[in-house]
Task: structure prediction
Amino acid sequence: MGNNVDVESMSRVSGQIPSSIRIDGEQQYKLDSLVTCNEDSGNARLAKHFYQFMCIFAIICLHSIALCLAYSAHATFLCWTFLWIDLPLCFMIWSLIGISMTLLLLKFVIGNVQPGTYKLNSWYYVHKLWFRQLIVSSFRYCFFVLDTSHPWFPLILRSLGAEIDLNNHDDIKIGYLHYFLHYPSNLLTIKNGLTTNARVVLVPFDLSCRGQYITVNRITFGEGVTCGNDCTIHQGSTISAHTMIGSITRITRETAAISSSNYNDNNILFGVPARQMPFVLPSWPEKDDRFIILKKSIFRIFFVHLIAKMSVLVSAKGTEKTVDPDG
Result:
């Protein structure tokens, strides 16, 4: 691979890649001359390295505190119980402490992120984005104590600043929360009916190929959006209502804008980069109508089974009467 090669996410790379090439899925494009940003002075660079080292040291200390608290609970209350009770409870205590630490750090230490373009070597990126990735990646195993699509997930995102309607948050099914926590929560807009399966990755920023700059923007999920496994959604994407995103699909601001301009809703997107399928999802009736249809279908099935059972019983009784007991 040559120099100055820009590889988009989920793109396949094989063979000899020349310099100054942008790889997007199966396509390759020639890049213009790159413009690099000015590097920091030695003191500023050293200060950022020291800050990153202190962040890593703080995370190690927090993990040590969580382990000490879990061990204290074991030594004080749980050591007299059976081992098959002690170990799960200790793991649950450690997980809940880790979840609490993660949410407190994201809420009060990291805070909100403003959309815009920033330098990759800026203090804003190091504190707001790099430190966030470190926190979530370090404590992500704590969230495994909660089931997938847990009803607390929308409430947690709402408490961190995401725009979610709490009146209908039960309709929102998020597979794994830590994938959403990598993204700044205040830049998330989630409408009713969102369903995400395992490993839906939200990319918090895009790196400019014409220099060391990052772009951060809002992600909006329309009503009734369904995301398949291992799909990637980049910053700035606005997904229209009732859109189904297939597995191993990459959504960017450009693909989301194209899909929104061609169709109003009921899109099916698939591929790297995402492309519209030549068919759309069927339009469902309203929720109340679907409930009435469901009740009618259940009643019809019950009625058919009842008639079938009664017919079998009547035929069995008739057979018993026709049989001669004397043989």
